[in-house]
Design brief:
homodimer; alpha/beta; 7-stranded parallel beta sheet
Chain lengths: ~240, ~240
């Protein structure tokens, strides 16, 4: 499931570096977001980004606009991003705080997420078209983020509640297999004198607990069993 | 407060692109993470990254190792990252799931977060030194992330619970100011015939509710008051 639905529009304003345009587009692909708009991109960068090897659909379908109001004309909610410690008339909110609201609005209406240029970020004029301003939490002395990384983090935050990686099931052997390994291990321990009939019960419990503490997958279980079989064979039949 | 404490070590394995080394280091600075280790970086890239304009302390203090086990020797918990859909003996967990555990372990012990090369990611051999493998949630058809963006997202996820951006307080004017604006607005409305004595009470309530629905900051309040004063003056004194 793509998080951001079809209703999220990423707007890059006055971006200079073609690599950053490409990086933003790649992050968008990663998180299933398709609509990229560029406001006054530095022309040679835009040409270079579009024609880069591996440039994907997001870049090919990107639209270029002359101004922020043009680019957000059809958007019900417009969110600006800012790393700088300026004072805006809008209050600045943390990304974590804005994301649920943006996600909710995307259910019903087209919304835009604006990113400013690498050097200056969004201007106060750009921000005056925004309903909300968000900031990614960073340490204060290093608050200026790479543009592509900022885009990636914002989309990740939008995605994190709803997308979960396709994880392999945690295949653990069942208790029957563990009991078999336990018995083989105890027999070996008795055989080599690690434990004896007196300490037997205590050792047995220690081994049982050890095997239960560490979830074992089938591959690990067969490694153990093969190892213990070979040890047993050598012990009985000599080196 | 830096999230990741002094105990998180970012390990880049066999990185090819100097820009990615720089981008990883920049993200580390953003999130207050200082210890970068490189395992067999492509030598020219490493030289270029280190000598780049604006290369920061993280890069200058980075250490180079010959192998993954050397690089994680002092680490209590080692987490690998993987975008690929391979089968590991470790179960692969979502970033959101691993982060709280990693954060908890960082309270007491040094831990490492490993990232593989741009082309192939971490090898199965590299991953065999890891206690856990995490994956960033992406759409399945575009699961390959940019290295710098992957580092940024992982550090953001570690930070997001504990760091909050230095937000400006949401300065709203108090009810006294709202009442003053309300009175001025109603007076103007009566004066221009927008409302009359009959509909007065109804209009008054509408205006009151409108002004309460939209939290107003002091700047906005003075804009309204100045506007209404000027309108009133012109109405009484003519154009």
């Amino acid at each position: 499931v793509a998080i951001t639905s079809d209703k999220l529009i990423v707007v890059l304003v006055a971006t200079r570096n073609p690599l950053n345009i490409g990086a933003a587009a790649r992050a968008m692909s990663n998180f299933g977001c398709r609509h990229l708009r560029l406001v006054r991109p530095y022309e040679p960068s835009w040409v270079e980004a579009k024609s880069a090897v591996g440039a994907d659909d997001v870049l090919h379908e990107a639209e270029v606009f002359d101004s922020v109001p043009d680019a957000v004309k059809d958007c019900g909610w417009v969110v600006g991003t800012s790393g700088a410690e300026r004072t805006f008339s809008q209050s600045v909110r943390g990304l974590q705080d804005v994301a649920p609201e943006l996600r909710a609005r995307l259910q019903t209406s087209t919304s835009a997420l604006l990113f400013g240029s690498e050097k200056t970020g969004l201007s106060n004029d750009d921000l005056s078209y925004c309903q909300a301003v968000l900031r990614i939490p960073t340490v204060q002395e290093h608050s200026s983020m790479n543009l592509g990384q900022a885009v990636a983090i914002c989309l990740y935050e939008l995605a994190r509640e709803v997308m979960h990686p396709a994880v392999e099931p945690n295949r653990q052997v069942d208790s029957g297999v563990l009991a078999r390994i336990e018995r083989m291990l105890i027999e070996t321990m008795l055989e080599i004198g690690y434990t004896d009939e007196k300490r037997h019960t205590h050792t047995e419990r220690e081994v049982r607990e050890y095997l239960r503490r560490h979830a074992m997958n089938p591959m690990e279980a067969s490694m153990w069993m093969k190892f213990l079989r070979k040890v047993g064979w050598r012990l009985r039949n000599g080196g």
